[in-house]
Amino acid sequence: MAELDKINNRILHELMSDGRITNAELAERVGLSPSACLRRVQELERSGVITGYRAVLDRAALGVGFTAYIAVGLSNHTAESQHAFERSIVESPEVRECHNITGAFEYLLRVETRDLAAYKTFHTDILGTLPQVSTITTHVVMESVKDANR
């Protein structure tokens, strides 16, 4: 793993803010020569600290106007039941995130749909039909004050 010294942390901060920044601009912002900066970025990539770059999308421009977090409880707590649930969730494009968590529920999902009616269809026709699911608790997002995914 690459050493995460002060300069590497600054590089990571800048890249998280703008993954398309040029190496020359990045080098200037972190106080390195372009060649030294490029070596550090390549080492961060090679060591797996940087795993990729992505586009941040405007969900509203894509027609997504509804976001909810859903706590899901399973009726059976076996590994087989969990794997079956996870396979189903991976196939659902509405599910943007799926986390296996501790506490009263087994999973926390971030679901994004066009609107409430589309969410109801997902809730009833997809999530509600999975045999592993025993409870579904939906928390509707009214506003996101801070969201690293946007």
Detailed description of the structure:
There is one protein chain. By secondary structure, the protein is of the alpha+beta class. It folds into 2 domains: 6-46, Arc Repressor Mutant, subunit A (Orthogonal Bundle); 60-140, 2-Layer Sandwich (Alpha-Beta Plaits). It is built from 5 helices and 4 strands; from the N terminus they run H-H-H-E-H-E-E-H-E. It has helices at 6-17, 23-30, 34-46, 79-90, 116-126; strands at residues 66-74, 95-100, 107-113, 133-140. Helix 1 (6-17) packs across helix 2 and helix 2 crosses helix 3. It is elongated and about 55 Å long. The chain starts with 5 loop residues before the first helix and ends in a 10-residue tail after the last strand. The model has no long low-confidence stretch (mean pLDDT 95).
Label this structure with key terms.
2 domains, alpha+beta, four-stranded antiparallel sheet, 5 helices, single chain, Alpha-Beta Plaits, 20% strand, Arc Repressor Mutant, subunit A, 4 strands, 150 residues, 37% helix
Give the N-terminus to C-terminus distance in angstroms. 28 Å
How would you classify the helix and strand content by structural class?
Answer: alpha+beta
In which range does the helix fraction lie? 25-40%
CATH domain topology of the largest domain: Alpha-Beta Plaits
The CATH architecture category of the largest domain equals 2-Layer Sandwich
Tally of domains: 2
Number of helices: 5
Question: Secondary structure elements and their pairing?
Answer:
Layout: H1 6-17, H2 23-30, H3 34-46, E1 66-74, H4 79-90, E2 95-100, E3 107-113, H5 116-126, E4 133-140
Antiparallel strand pairs: 1-3, 1-4, 2-3
